[in-house]
Amino acid sequence: MGYHCAMSTVPPPRRLAREERTIAEMIAMYCRGHHGQAGARDPGGPCPDCAELMAYASLRLEECRYGAEKPTCAKCTTHCYKPAMRECVREVMRYSGPRMLKRHPVLAVAHLVDGRKTPGDEG
In a designed cystine with 81, which of 8, 23, 73, 86 is the match (CB 3.0 to 4.6 A)? Predict the structure, then answer.
């Protein structure tokens, strides 16, 4: 995803890699539920709109000013998403959030724990 460029050999911090995986799973779940395979570029892949949202979310994570200490975006004091993209992510999370507990319980619980952090929190 967004943390590995051709010149980088440093893996992303585990916290950011998990956050990126969480949003990717949520977007994929939303895409399957709302767009099915119609419009998918490859079997099992997201449709072009969802792929664009995934790329945007990955870039926002990569460029986050808080790095590995970031809170979840909803709790962040700096909203770096464009308003239209932020609304798309909200829609994805409203749909996928409740379903994450069943399909990806570890990611869901980790996201809930992360949601209790604010910028500057230690641990």
Answer: 86
Taking the model in full, what pTM does it have? Answer: 0.74
DSSP state letter for 115:
T
Least Cα distance to 31 among 15, 47, 44, 11 occurs for: 47
State phi, psi for 40 to the nearest 5 degrees. Answer: -70, 140
Answer positive or negative: Cα dihedral of 86, 105, 50, 33.
negative
The answer to whether 77 and 119 have CB atoms below 8 angstroms apart is yes
Residue 34 and residue 95 in contact, taking contact as beta carbons nearer than 8 Å: yes
**Alpha-carbon span 18 to 110, nearest angstrom:** 9
Question: Quick one: DSSP state of residue 79?
Answer: -
CB 50 within 8 A of CB 30: yes
Question: Which residues make Cβ contacts (< 8 Å) with residue 40, sequence separation at least 6?
Answer: 31, 46, 47
pLDDT in tens, 26-65: 999 899 889 876 544 556 678 899 999 999 999 998 888 8
- Which tokens go with 48? 């072009």
